[in-house]
Amino acid sequence: MSDLSTRSWTRWQDWGEVVLGVVVALTPLWFDTSTGAMWTMVILGALVALDGLASLAMPGMVYAEWFQMVLGALLFISPWVLTYTDMTGAAWTSWIGGALIVLAGAAALPAATSAHGRTAGQH
Q1: Best label site of 45, 81, 101, 114, fewest CB within 10 Å?
Q2: What's the CA angle centered on 70, arms 64 and 74, to 5 degrees?
Q3: pTM, whole model, 2 decimals?
Q4: CA-to-CA distance for 111 and 26, rounded, in angstroms?
Q5: Contact status, residue 104 vs residue 17, Cβ threshold 8 Å
Q6: Contacts for 83-89: CB closer than 8 Å, 24+ residues apart
Q7: What is the rounded distance in angstroms from the CA atom of residue 22 to the CA atom of residue 46?
Q8: pLDDT at residue 119 is higher than 80
């Protein structure tokens, strides 16, 4: 793992999570949604963006990447659970955004583990 991936504010995966979270949170502005779909997308998107910012600030938080993947999975299944599959824009944003968030979290996991290992002895 390169040293760059263990420094604050440098991991592309975490920046991607922030951007994806903001896009998901803002999706109800340009696509039709139900009340449940809207709040799900706003809340999950905001949590993804905030968690991405936390991971950028503290790159050794391994649990944050796992939390990111859980949020992505919840976003991915939300169109079926909250029955908004017929709202094409919102549903596809949830499916694609959720899958990309899971992939970004999984891609950041080795770097977070490496950063955690480097800082573990400094406590």
Answers
A1: 81
A2: 140
A3: 0.89
A4: 29
A5: yes
A6: 84/33, 84/34, 84/36, 84/37, 87/31, 87/32, 87/33, 87/34, 87/37, 88/31, 89/27, 89/30, 89/31, 89/32
A7: 7
A8: no
